[in-house]
Specification:
It contains 14 helices and ten strands. By secondary structure, it is an alpha/beta fold.
């Protein structure tokens, strides 16, 4: 059966991937309550369709993202979120993901942990590419990475600020998962690169983070990064409204609201729940990106109506990649974009500018009745 929704793509990917690789991609922190909450938070938000609006064509282009895209208007508010080691899902790795993103007009944020050199990706991209940065203890290394991204022509820099330590990813601990063992292994029938057996109860990813990344991130680090580059700076991992206000004082160019896909802190609030409060705090001038649990065009529409300018999708792109390489990623993105256009049409929205809280109903007490 041809996959027709994200859940179909996930099941196909689960069957094709080695179990420990599937767990690395699919898993969350602790007992994965945050992972589940990301889905539930979107389910709690309901759409109220407007009728008789005379809508015949729907425009999904996202002009608010133009400052982050070298002044080019993306064809869609859908962003392929940064995620590590795409060659775990398919031998073509980030090359395939980028080709699909270009084909669909969806901006791509390349991870620090990409398996493909950033310069290679930028050289082969027909659309602007953004770069996600983890802050290393070695600032010289960070300085080189930032310069590399700028020289390669990246349109923006996304600094991840919610990972001073690795969350308790229990699936990886149970599997003794270490990326080095499984890179370039795309299915359950491949052989691991290393003959060393996994160390059960330990995570090689967590060990790498503890050894290499800065555990004491501060606003001074944000200022340091901003002073290293001319690229617009996005802060990824913001959830608290007070942090969003402080970001304004530090001249951040955009905020990426995220709980890291539920992979850092169990019992974490979802980004979608915090989105309206943060939008009120920062006003309309600050571009906001949000991710976590996006599985349909209706989910994208809900996020836009609650105040986002764009949404990030991570796991769905990887499910498509694992299932069918670049063609799979493109099919996933097209399904989401087509479903967004359909949902917009059914709610009476001809363009992103028409989307607002008039079409939202949520059970959250602070919003009941506000749209009616």
């Amino acid at each position: 059966m041809e996959p027709v929704c994200i859940e179909d793509w996930e099941e196909l990917a689960r069957r094709r991937l080695a179990p420990e690789i599937y767990d690395f991609i699919a898993g969350g922190a602790g007992l994965e309550r945050s992972l589940q909450e990301n889905i539930r938070a979107l389910e709690r938000v309901k759409l109220i369709s407007r009728v008789l609006r005379g809508v015949s064509d729907v425009d999904t282009s996202a002009p608010r993202l133009s400052p982050l895209q070298s002044a080019r208007t993306p064809a869609t508010p859908l962003i392929v979120a940064p995620s590590a080691h795409h060659q775990l899902a398919h031998p073509d790795g980030e090359r395939a993901t980028l080709a699909a993103a270009n084909q669909c007009g969806a901006p791509l944020i390349v991870s620090t942990m990409s398996d493909t050199p950033l310069e290679t990706l930028c050289q082969h991209s027909t659309e602007p590419v953004m770069f996600q940065l983890y802050l290393y203890k070695d600032r010289g290394r960070n300085r080189d990475m930032i310069q590399q991204a700028q020289d390669a022509g990246c349109s923006a820099l996304a600094l991840t600020v919610d990972a001073p330590r690795m969350g308790a990813r229990l699936r990886d601990r149970r599997n003794g998962f270490d990326v080095k063992r499984y890179q370039k292994r795309a299915d359950r029938f491949g052989e691991p690169l290393s003959s060393e057996p996994p160390v059960l109860g330990q995570s090689g990813v967590a060990a790498f983070v503890a050894e290499q990344l800065e555990p004491a991130l501060s606003w001074a680090d944000v200022d340091w990064v901003k002073n290293q580059t001319r690229m617009p700076l996005i802060l990824k991992g913001v959830l608290h409204p007070q942090d969003a206000e402080i970001a304004l004082e530090h001249d951040v160019d955009a905020l990426y609201l995220s709980n890291h896909g539920g992979r850092q802190l169990d019992h974490h609030v979802s980004a979608i729940d915090m989105l309206p409060s943060i939008r009120r705090r920062v006003g309309e001038s600050m571009p906001l990106i949000v991710d976590g649990g996006i599985r349909s065009g209706a989910d994208i529409l809900k996020a836009l109506a609650l105040g986002a300018d764009a949404v990030g999708v991570g796991r769905p792109a990887l499910w498509g990649l694992a299932s069918a390489g670049a063609q799979g990623v493109a099919a996933v993105l097209r399904q989401l974009i087509d479903d967004l256009a359909l949902s917009m049409h059914l709610c009476g929205c001809a363009s992103l500018a028409d989307i607002n809280q008039e079409i939202i109903w949520t059970e959250h007490p602070s919003y009941q009745g506000e749209t009616l």
